[in-house]
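Annex B. Sample input.
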Amino acid sequence: MASKKTLTKKRSARQQRSPVGSNPAWTERTERGVRVLQVPALTKLSWLVHGFSTRPGGVSELDGGKVLNLGFAEWDSRENVLENRRRFQSVFEANDLHLVALKQFHSDVVQMFDAPPSQPCRGDASAANRSGLLLGVQTADCVPILLVDTKKRAVAAVHAGWRGTLQRIVVKAIGQMQMQFGTNPGDLLAAIGPAIGGCCYEVGTEVAIQFQSQFAGAHEWFDEFRTGDEPNPVQWLNMMPPGHQPPPKNVLLDLRKANRAQLVEAGLRAQNIFVNELCTACRRDLFFSYRKEGAITGRLMSVVGIRNSAKNSPR
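Annex B, continued. Sample output.
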């Protein structure tokens, strides 16, 4: 029989590997091995469905194991992906909603839907205020953001890589909600899901320069802001001819911090923004990471929608 001390150590290890950790703003829901992350502030809205997928619990074969790949890829079959999506939606009882997944291309295009599209639309964000639609974005390091207007009952799903973040795609999605639905940013709840963290996301100094040109507070989103023009005090120690600088080091960018700052600037209340701090590159037991695994990896999906017949139901 294990000692009390040993059991305590094992319990602590399980807690450290939990996808929600000690953050009360996030919970985990599991069914048939499929693990979905949710935000209690959103789950208490009876008319809303939402969820952030994780890696385990699917039927797709990858690296000798079964994974929940939710994106169509050459290495996986269409049948597997469709079954994975069915399992994912069943965890939060959303199989009766029509899944709307975009053909993403790292843009600032926001698609508005009032009916299921006849074919996939190109874009990196979508919004709707009608029931029966489940808006989804796929990620494998980029930042997924779900927006919920608690007063107008409208929702949006946003995919923000560094290009989309630079183009303020989440702000533009909020702008579309304001124009189309009369959304007040102060009424919005935002959930920023698992993404590659500032601990792992290396970008070139040219990216840092682009962010600096667009955002006054950009330096706060990098571990050590550099442009590549800084003088090298020990240049004479390298073997390159005089006057030639070695290539500048990459910098670490925190995309979640950048998008949270944009949400606050757009008018959201800080207490209404829920950020999951788990890094997809560090936690490949739970997530997919394009940066760490390359092209042969899966896709996570983050979804939000309004339940059927929910527009006139009580909160």
